[in-house]
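ARCHIVE CARD
Drawer: 12
Card no.: 0347
Subject: one protein chain, sequence and derived structure
Cross-reference: see card 0346
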Amino acid sequence: MIAQPYQLYVERTDRAKNMARYYAMSIDSNLFGELCLTRRWGRIGSKGQTLIHHFDREKDAVSLFLELTRQKRARGYRTRPAISGESDRCAPSTRIELGAIR
């Protein structure tokens, strides 16, 4: 069982380069109780690609999650700025919660 939720959604856009990318990650348990780090990425508005990593320990999953977060931030990915009038239920999660790791 996961001690707390880990979710990330970031985007990288550059009109001059016609770049509009997203990157999303979350740590969840699958039906067999294994911890899974699910990564999704692609062009904004597309289905994109998905990669799932399986872990025995939460500490290992969180470690990879944080390392990938650092890498994406270094490459220019940022949380999406809020658009006025946009409802919260439509906005992707931009929350990263860090806490005690078992």
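Annotation on reverse: The helical segments are 58-74. The two ends are 11 Å apart (CA to CA).
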